[in-house]
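help with this:

***
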Amino acid sequence: MLEGLPEVVGRALRGRRAGLDRILFNRISLGPGTGAIEVRSLAFADHAPIPEIYTADGDGRSPPLQWTGVPDAATRVALVVEDADSVMPQPLVHAVVVDLPPGDLSLPDGAIAPGSGLSGRLGRNSVLGTGWLPPDPPPGHGPHRYVFQVFALAGGGPHRGTPGREAVARAIARYGIASGCLVGTYERPDASERLGKGAIAARAPE
């Protein structure tokens, strides 16, 4: 969607970023005594690039995720994925999954999609859709950090309807007992880099 945006616009907006301080993991204090969840992916390491296949430049499916450290007292788990480097005032929401059973400690490749057989429920992303909104940063804007945040909740009932970020935030603030996150990055190269790669490919022997 944003791949056709002039990169001069992306470069001009490089200093405009929502910021890590605005993601849910940093906005919501769970209080003393709460637990830590370790979040990982088989597709990329923490603070490493997300493979193109999981972005708007590839298949656009969601990456596999795993987590450990969910407390025994947890009754449900929520996942929220936000782009901390969105040019908007708030991080862009790429996925919301709620009411995951606490015993489910992973999401397979492509699971964040309608009809995937997901054990939890899909919430709304920033374009008011459900499912995975693949990374789609403006050309020339630099690296974006996509934060995969997992929260364990104890108490409270299932979410109603199709919850967005703020509805999930209220539930986390009231019932959250553990949290953790994984950061993946993605950057669209500028035109000179793309042209350079094309020239190299054109000269490559068959």
The first strand starts at residue 35 and ends at 36. The chain has one domain: 7-203.
